[in-house]
Every structure is written in C-alpha cells, then in structure tokens.
C-alpha cells in the first residue's frame, strides 16, 4: 500500500505518513521519493527509474522529512531503501548545479547531509537494497543505512573526483569509517567505483547476491530484523551510532576528513 508521496500531501498537510500514523507536520515537495508501508516494515523508493535516480534538493529534504517521521513511528520495525528500476541512485542531480553559486552548492551538500544524518539517527534499522550504481551522494545514502545488500552487478563509490568537486568532511568521514582511511583516500582521489565483491571485502556491503535474488534476500533480512522483540534503538545507543556515525571532523582534522579538491560523472 502506498502511504505517502512527496508530491501528494494529505489533508492534514503531511507530506509523508508512516504505517497507520499520520504526521502532522509538513515537508518539502518531491516527486522522487515514495514511501510504502508493508506491515511492520516500510520501503523508501528513490526516483522514478530515469536519470539513474539522481535526486534534487527538494528530494533530499523530503528524505530527511520521511526519516524524521519514521523516528516517531513505533510500529515500524525495519525500513528498506532502494532505487526505482535497476539502479540505486547516482546521487545529486547536477543539472541543478549548472548555474549555481557557491552558496547554492553548499546548501545542496547541507541537504544531502541532513538526509543521511536523519537516516543515521532514526531509531529503526535501515537496510539499503543496492542494484546498479550507488554513486556520489547515492553512495553516502547507502552508507548511512545500517545494512547493505548488494546485487552482484552493483557498484559503489564517489566518482565526483572527475568533476573537480570538493567532497565535504562528513562525506569523507562516512566513507573512511567503513572502508578505512587508505581505501577511502583512493576512492576519493581517483573516483574509482568498487564492484559488489570488492564492496563486501571492504566492509561497504554486508552481502552480495545474484541480481535475480536481490529482492528475496532483502526480504529475508527484513523478516529476520522485524521478528526480533528487542527495544528500538535510541540515536545514542543503537549499534550504528556507537562509533559508526560520529560527528564529522573539522576540515583540517585528517587527510581524509578535510575538504579536498576532487577531479566524476554526473553525480555528486
């Protein structure tokens, strides 16, 4: 059952509703974020299958709103994030950046980071179902989730190096925490994408499965998580928060954490 889309606010003014709970606060308008309720689980679908599911500023704000509302819904036990069609997300829609001023780019990064932080702070476990490409901010979105299931043809990385875009300290830190500083530097400086096998070996994915089995493998993991009777995790004591998602370091804190000139594709 579709329970909310950013393009169709309900009568209360809420952009998203989760489970049987209808939020009373409004949110950004976005046609590229869809939320579905499925019993004790929920699904967030990115994009519409076009433009490699790249997301605009309003889409990132809509994601933030959705996960802030998920945080208040005690009926939802697990959330899946996936892309529409055959790919996860190519990140930010850089068509919005063509005539953007530096301040606009900073606001874009702030919106992306706010969405990722909302996922990390959500007390409900979040699983990324990754097929195709998770690149740039799409990579960050996947890494912000608690668990990641990859199709065997999936790839992940930060290809914005090829565009000369500066990577934010928070983006660099999120990658380094999972992959280690050495591999993070390599991916940030070269824009190389890891395939699914490399992602599992590097700790960026929990498992990889044949593409035809991706949905089934994710559903199996969802059922295992939803079946547990344990308490919902608070932002401070949930496993992903205890050392996996610390505050972003200041720009000069480390070679990986600083803003560094990047020399990638159409995604940020």
Question: How do the helices and strands line up, and which of them pair or pack?
Answer:
Layout: E1 2-5, E2 17-18, E3 21-22, E4 33-38, E5 41-46, H1 57-70, E6 78-83, H2 102-121, E7 126-130, E8 133-135, H3 137-144, E9 147-151, E10 155-157, H4 169-179, H5 181-190, E11 193-195, H6 196-202, E12 207-209, H7 214-226
Parallel strand pairs: 5-6, 6-7, 7-9, 8-10, 9-12
Antiparallel strand pairs: 1-4, 2-3, 4-5, 10-11
Explain what you see.
- This protein is α/β, with parallel strands linked by helices and 268 residues long.
- It has a single domain (27-226), classed as Alpha-Beta Complex (2-enoyl-CoA Hydratase, Chain A, domain 1).
- The chain has seven helices and twelve strands.
- The protein has helices spanning 57-70, 102-121, 137-144, 169-179, 181-190, 196-202, 214-226, and strands at 2-5, 17-18, 21-22, 33-38, 41-46, 78-83, 126-130, 133-135, 147-151, 155-157, 193-195, 207-209.
- A seven-stranded mixed sheet has the order 1-4-5-6-7-9-12, sandwiched between helices.
- Helix 2 (102-121) links the parallel strand 6 (78-83) and strand 7 (126-130).
- Helix 2 (102-121) packs parallel to helix 3 and helix 3 (137-144) packs across helix 4.
- The relative contact order is 0.14.
